[in-house]
Write a structure and sequence with these properties.
The complex is a heterodimer of chains A (114) and B (115). In chain A, the strands form three sheets. In chain A, strands 2, 5, 6, 10, 11 and 12 form a six-stranded mixed sheet that branches. Chain A is 0% helix and 50% strand. In chain A, strand 5 and strand 6 form a beta hairpin. Chain A starts with a strand and ends with a strand. Chain B is mainly β. Helices cover 0% and strands 49% of the residues of chain B. Chain B contains no helices and eleven strands. Classes of the chains: A mainly beta (114), B mainly beta (115). At the A-B interface, strand 6 and strand 11 of A face strand 4, strand 5, strand 9 and strand 10 of B.
Chain lengths: 114, 115
């Protein structure tokens, strides 16, 4: 079945460092890809998305490109801030009945130190 | 437009009791999803519902768990005869039926603790 694999955390960076969180997926069809962020004690918020190959999603300085040839959707940010400390989830979704479940990776905890 | 509402935010039950979790989707959203997050783990899909219909329940445990999304009122996730292993955060998400890129909006979650 479909699955998502993320790099293990925790990832600890200094403020203004470059961030990469790797994400690869396995899917039978042509899924949409998502990055969600979860702050402590809260629900998930959509960070960015891409719905087809070569699409680039971007938001708040974060970027990820849908790479069909490598089945990847790596998250990057050029300069992280302390406020970016959170858990990041990569996810895919196959469209079913105009909806469809999200399949999540295990999450990567990011800690940014001042 | 209020976001996805879940209540209660925290629920404590003793083993053998019933837990009832409620989710009110965003206005105009007809699709509801339930996910479970066990401690130190990612989110796992449980069930996908549209009004009065279960579309996909492939992630629901075979026994003790049920879900509904009636024509009127919130979606309910019901856990009968809870056990300690049911302790987790349960998240509801809703979305409009608009295609490949439609976002699922998540509620704040219900944290269930089974004593």
């Amino acid at each position: 079945g479909d699955s998502v694999t993320q790099m293990e955390g925790p990832v600890t960076l200094s403020e203004e460092a470059f961030l990469t969180i790797n994400c690869t997926y396995t899917a039978t069809g042509y899924p949409s890809l998502f990055w969600y962020v979860q702050y402590p004690g809260e629900g998930l918020q959509l960070l960015l998305k891409a719905t087809k190959a070569d699409d680039k999603g971007s938001n708040k300085g974060f970027e990820a490109t849908y790479r069909k040839e490598t089945t990847s959707f790596h998250l990057e940010k050029g300069s992280v801030q302390v406020s970016d400390s959170a858990v990041y989830f990569c996810a895919l979704r196959e469209l079913v009945n105009q909806g469809g479940k999200l399949i999540f990776g295990q999450g990567t905890e990011l800690s940014v130190k001042p | 437009n209020a976001g996805v509402m879940q209540n209660p935010r925290h629920l404590v039950r003793r083993r053998g009791q019933e837990a009832r979790l409620r989710c009110s989707p965003m206005k105009g959203h007809s699709h509801v999803y339930w996910y479970r997050q066990l401690p130190e783990e990612g989110l796992k899909f449980m069930v996908y519902l549209q009004k009065e219909n279960i579309i996909d329940e492939s992630g629901m445990p075979k026994e003790r768990f049920s879900a509904e999304f009636p024509k009127e009122g919130p979606s309910i996730l019901r856990i009968q005869q809870v056990v300690r292993g049911d302790s987790a955060a349960y998240f509801c998400a809703s979305s409009p039926p608009s295609g490949r890129g439609n976002e699922q909006f998540f509620g704040p979650g219900t944290r269930l603790t089974v004593l």
